[in-house]
Amino acid sequence: MLRSVFRCLRINPVAGQRSMSQSSLAGKVAIVTASTDGIGLATAQALGKKGAQVVVSSRRQANVDKAVALLQSQSIQVIGTICNIDKKEDREKLVQTTLDQYGGIDILVSNAAVNPFFGNLLDTTEEVWDKIMSVNVKAAYLMTKLVVPHMTQRGGGSVVIVSSIAGYQPIQGLGAYSVSKTALLGLTRALAPELAHDNIRVNCVAPGVIKTRFSSSLWQNEDMMDGFKQLLSIKRIGEPEEIGGVVAFLCSDEASYITGETITATGGINCRL
Ligand code: NAP
């Protein structure tokens, strides 16, 4: 009886079962950078809930400990270590710790970014430019370069880079940061064809305004939010979990034919370059 219903509806029950397991990340090892708060933490949570073993990190041990405890309380397999993404020795330690504890790497989510200056683009100092480009762009590339040999050893993997809506439409006052986020759209597209040979997919997520500490000066300012809401189809700012879920999808086999893409998750703000 059930079979004939499936036949009428042209549903293959076996294919249905397969698609459920395609979203699973059981047995996968995932590094998420800058993952003790906000979007990074929500991403670690989303990956962990799909069964991945996750590695969280950030600059402060207290934050790492807190994030590990929170994820463990949700039965997520997790370890944590300090990693200031701007430091070569920290990046190497993050990779080595992952290999020592979990024996391989399948997923990298490059999420770290800074914005040390708010103001006119032409008032941005060389020092600020260097910092923004080093953390937001160069470290994303260098982390990818570090993990690729280990993904290759496992027969493939997935890299997801966190950009921003600012990468499409520069935000006033955040000029250099916006340019760095546009660079990540390019980095994604440049890496994807090269790494496809090793069965590694490279994708990007560009969030709109998401309720985190990083964006608090925006969402705590009612006047700014009123103006901003005009641009939104969904008239609220996003939650970190709404980005974590998109990243987890891109890391899963459900996205097995997607590479070099950026998914914008902005509540409907029009994005184009
Ligand atoms: P957040 O909530 O403020 O969290 C930032 C995280 O990064 C913390 O865990 C922090 O921990 C860590 N961190 C900061 N500097 C670091 C460094 N140099 N190395 C390693 N870890 C570092 O920020 P968020 O809003 O989730 O932002 C995450 C990403 O989303 C960024 O790439 C940002 O550009 C992007 N994004 C955010 C929004 C938004 O509206 N929130 C929109 C678009 C894009 P420690 O202090 O312990 O280091």
Automatic annotation (TrEMBL):
Family: Belongs to the short-chain dehydrogenases/reductases (SDR) family.
Domain of life from the UniProt record: Eukaryota
SUPFAM superfamilies xref list: NAD(P)-binding Rossmann-fold domains
Name of the protein in question: Dehydrogenase/reductase SDR family member 4 isoform X2
GO molecular function terms noted in the UniProt entry: carbonyl reductase (NADPH) activity
Keywords annotated in UniProt: Oxidoreductase
Organism from which the protein derives: Xyrichtys novacula
Stored InterPro entries: NAD(P)-bd_dom_sf, Sc_DH/Rdtase_CS, SDR_fam
